[in-house]
Amino acid sequence: MQSVRFRSLLGVCLLGAIGLSGCSNLSVAVAPKVTQADLRKIKKVAIQLDAGGSAGMPNFGGFRMMGGGGSTEAFSDHFAVELLKLGIDVVERTQLDRVMKEQALNLGGVTETEKTIAAGKILAVDALITGSVGMGQTYSMGYVMGIGAGMHEVVGNASIRMIDIEKGNWLLVITMSDGKDSVLDTAKSFAKALKQKIEGS
Questions:
Q1: Measuring CA to CA, which residue among 183, 131, 146, 173 is closest to residue 32?
Q2: What span, in angstroms and rounded, lies between the C-alpha atoms of 12 and 62?
Q3: What are the start-end ranges of the E strands in the chain?
Q4: pLDDT given at position 94
Q5: Which DSSP letter does residue 57 get?
Q6: Helix count and strand count (H, E) for the chain
């Protein structure tokens, strides 16, 4: 009887530990000499994110493994939607891709970031948001009676930079590590952090 009770209590503890509401370590750094006035000028942005490094790491009751490039695009889409909700205009990814392809034919020997900045000037954006997102999947054993068990997509790590299109210098960096939140929740956190820095709140 004691053994059964012990196993039951252990199961409850583990289930509480492997919930999907994990806390992400998010930090924001503004570049030296960048003023609040510089940030408040940002009204329209373009987003160009790449798949980041492995988000695989041990987890209670499960494991993580890398997601594909489509997951990074999903994060970009969620991030764009959240920025729009907060009043920041975002250029369509298809528009940015089209202009970048045109620039690739005319700009040889330059970096991808330089090509994107050139495309951003054509599209009349104030800043370019670039960086990488490390996607992953966590297996959760679920809660009581296995409810919610299965694979769940998360953002394991991410680093984005906002670059001033006119000057070419970076304005701020937002990084996150050891993430356990869903793609949507992480996108909301990044958008909120960016908006707060722009407004100075």
A1: 173
A2: 16
A3: 25-30, 44-51, 64-66, 89-90, 127-140, 150-164, 170-177
A4: 87
A5: -
A6: 6, 7
Beta strand segments in 16-82, E: 25-30, 44-51, 64-66
Token pair 């940030």 in the structure block, residue:
39
Phi, psi of 103 (to 5 degrees): -70, -30
Nearest CA among 191, 125, 116 for reference residue 158: 191
What are the structural domains, with CATH classification, of the chain? Answer: 2-199 (3.30.160)
Closest CA to 136 of 149, 151, 114, 115: 151
**Contact call for residues 170 and 164 (beta carbons, < 8 A):** yes
Size of the chain, expressed as the number of residues it contains: 201
Q: Which amino acid is at 155?
A: V
Q: In tens digits, what is the pLDDT along the chain, a chain of 201 residues?
A: 444 333 333 333 323 333 334 445 889 999 999 999 999 999 999 998 887 654 444 333 333 334 445 688 889 999 999 999 999 999 988 888 888 888 776 766 677 778 788 888 999 999 999 999 987 777 666 666 556 566 777 888 999 999 999 998 999 999 998 888 888 999 999 999 999 999 987
Contact (CB, 8 A) for 186 and 159: no
Contacts of 170 (CB under 8 A, 6+ apart): 31, 161, 162, 163, 164
